[in-house]
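for the recovery benchmark. tokens below, seq after
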């Protein structure tokens, strides 16, 4: 079928587009350089060009704690408007299925671990990324409303923190794993990391996430949100030690406790995905880190030159 992937030039989108093309679909991977989805006219032009039967909405403006603190208004506006425009065009064009990728940042700050989908509305997200999380969560409301009023078959998925080859290793916008890898490989003696290392996170390898998206698109048609995760919780301090071991780093790791920690704990219950469409994450964290480090080592000269 004809498939549109918004954010198709990005980290997750490029992996998904490759998978769909390998399965024989006609894929239109829309990149931000060609379509500014915060503009209704650009979104309309994208749909007119792609004429999709199925849409995966992955496009987002996002980053780590520092980027969220620096761009709260932009992240709220951009993510809300992009999603609203994609929903409306999917309705107008009679799209057969719309898959919206949300974020684990939408969960309340003090959600009991593991996060269950029914916890989503039980509080306000962690302050540093709340505007982004709230914008994404609003798209769930929109998807459910469009399903009820217009019959648009849209599903909403909540992946936990992603990582893998082609991740964004930007100096100020990277998430925790690419940021750790870049800092450790670029350092000889000492690495200074934000916070105290006590928060926990759960990480999902990019190829596993792609598998979950494809399975959900084929097998799930419900209105309720669904988590995608690996079910393995690890502290940032333990993660830093693991990345240091994988990279062979022998220097010191220091913690800057004047910087924010972010959400105290983050790990999801992915049993609904297993039950509804047979999803199970298969890539162990160390194996995924080894692949990611190997990729970055090959690409590091390009990053240094940019």
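predicted aa per position
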């Amino acid at each position: 079928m004809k498939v549109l992937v918004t954010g198709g030039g990005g980290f997750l989108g490029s992996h998904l587009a490759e998978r769909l093309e390998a399965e024989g679909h006609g894929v239109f991977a829309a990149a931000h350089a060609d379509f500014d989805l915060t503009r209704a006219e650009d979104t309309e032009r994208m749909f007119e060009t792609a004429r999709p039967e199925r849409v995966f909405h992955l496009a987002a403006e996002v980053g780590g704690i520092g980027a969220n603190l620096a761009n709260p208004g932009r992240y709220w506006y951009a993510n809300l408007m992009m999603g609203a425009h994609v929903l409306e065009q999917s309705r107008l064009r009679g799209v057969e299925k719309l898959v919206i990728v949300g974020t684990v940042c939408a969960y309340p700050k003090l959600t009991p671990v593991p996060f269950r989908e029914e916890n989503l509305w039980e509080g306000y997200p962690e302050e540093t990324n709340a505007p982004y999380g709230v914008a994404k969560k609003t798209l769930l409301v929109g998807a459910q409303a469009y399903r009820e009023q217009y019959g648009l078959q849209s599903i909403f998925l909540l992946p936990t923190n992603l990582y893998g080859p082609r991740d964004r290793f930007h100096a100020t916008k990277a998430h925790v794993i690419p940021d750790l890898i870049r800092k450790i490989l670029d350092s000889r003696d000492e690495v200074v990391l934000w916070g105290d290392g006590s928060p926990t996170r759960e990480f999902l390898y990019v190829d596993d996430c792609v598998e979950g998206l494809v399975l959900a698109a084929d097998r799930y048609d419900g209105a309720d949100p669904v988590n995608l995760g690996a079910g393995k919780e690890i502290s940032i301090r333990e993660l830093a030690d693991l990345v240091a071991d994988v990279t062979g780093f022998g220097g010191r790791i220091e913690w800057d406790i004047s910087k924010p920690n972010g959400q105290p704990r983050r790990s999801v219950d992915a049993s609904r995905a297993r039950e509804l469409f047979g999803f199970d994450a298969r890539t162990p964290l160390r194996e995924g880190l080894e692949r990611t480090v190997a990729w970055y080592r090959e690409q590091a000269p390009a990053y240094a030159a940019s």
